[in-house]
């Protein structure tokens, strides 16, 4: 099945991270302006670096076409990279925020 190898875990990672925040941690991270500014800063660096690494005319990183959807935007970046990036950044910030909240209560 095309896209399963990289796409399915990427999509699931987003659902898991969002579910953990909304159902368990409830830090309010998604309502914070600082969170969305952080996401924008990450994207500002991710796009040129990931674009250079995955450009189709001279890739540094090569993805097996059988393991992703093949949707690339912008600069030939596989869309799955953005999903994993969102999950990694958000999970890290959630862990940090939850730990900070726990430390404050102690």
UniProtKB/TrEMBL annotation:
Transmembrane domains' residue ranges: 6-25, 34-53, 82-99
InterPro entries: Lycopene_cyclase_dom
Alphabetized UniProt keyword annotations: Carotenoid biosynthesis, Isomerase, Membrane, Transmembrane, Transmembrane helix
Domain of life: Bacteria
Cellular localisation: Membrane
Main location: membrane
Domain Lycopene cyclase: residue ranges: 13-94
A Gene Ontology term for the protein's cellular component: membrane
Transmembrane helix listed as a keyword: yes
Topological relation to the membrane, as annotated: Multi-pass membrane protein
Pfam families per UniProt: Lycopene_cyc (PF18916)
GO molecular function: intramolecular lyase activity; lycopene beta cyclase activity
Protein name in UniProt: Lycopene cyclase
Species this chain originates from: Saccharomonospora piscinae
